[in-house]
Please model this.
Amino acid sequence: MRYVQLRAFHNVAIHGGFSRAAEALFLTQPAVSDQVRKLEEEYDVLLFNRNKKQVTLTQAGQHLLEITRRMFDVEQQALDLLSESRALRAGKLRIVADAAHHLLHILAAFRRAYPTVQVSIDAGNTETVITSLHAYEADIGVLGEVPQSSDFEILKLNSTPIIAFTSRDYPLAGQTTVTFPELATHPLVMRERGSKTRQKLEAMAAECGVPLTPLIEAEGREAVREIVAAGGGVGFVSSAEFGQDNRLVPISIDAPEMLMDEALICLRERANGKLVNAFFDIARRLAPAAA
Model:
C-alpha cells in the first residue's frame, strides 16, 4: 500500500468522482484511476461502484474512507503544528450551526484576532451538526443540546426556554402565555424531525397528555419564521433564537420549563487543531457574555 494510492482513493471518495479528484490533486484522470485500480488489485477488494453517470463507495470503500478521513486530518494537524503561524494566518475554519447567532460575538472576536482566516458557516439541525463533525466535513459545531458522548469537546454557551411565537395579527398574539391544550387547537408550524427543539416540545406535551401534531413541517428555522410571519400558524423556538422581528410576537408556554442548552462542540480528537483551539479559547473567554 502506498500513500499516493490512499490519497487518490480518498479524493475520489470525498469529491465524488475521478475527474474532480484529479482536479483537486492536479493530476490527470488516468493517473488517479490507475492508483485506485492498483490499490483494489493489490488487496483484491472493490472500493467503488462504477457506472457511466456516477461513482459510489462500496461497503469496503465506506469503511476505508472513515480511516482515511482520520489519517489525512492527522496529517493536516501535523502540518499545522509545524507551520503554526501560517495556519493562523491563512487557514480555513468550517462551522455548522443550528443557529449562527449564538456565536456571532465569538466570531467577531475571532475575526479581529485572525483577520485572514477564512470562515465558512453552514446551517443544520442537531443531527446534521453531529454527522458533519463525524464525517470531518466541519471543524466546529453549534447545537441546541449538549451531546452525551465522550467523542466531543463541549463548551456550553447558554440555556434558554422554548417559547411559542405568532404573527402580530394572529388570534393568540394578545396573550402572554399559552397552554398545550390551547396550542393543540391551532395550526402548528414545526421544524423537521431532526430538530431538538421539536423533540423536546413534543416530548413535554406528550408527558402532559396533549400530543402536538404539526400542520406544517418546514426545513430550517428561517422557513418556520417566514411561514408564521405570513399568518400560517404558531411556531416554536428557544427564547435566545427569537431575535428581533417586528412581524412576530413571543408567547411563553404555560408548562414545565423546556430548556435548550446551546453548546459549541468539536471532535475531541481534533480539539488541538490550531484554528479549532484558537476559536474555543476565544469562546471560553466570552462564554459568560453568552449565558
In short: The first strand starts at residue 48 and ends at 50. The radius of gyration is 23 Å. The first helix runs from residue 3 to 15. DSSP finds twelve helices and twelve strands in the chain.
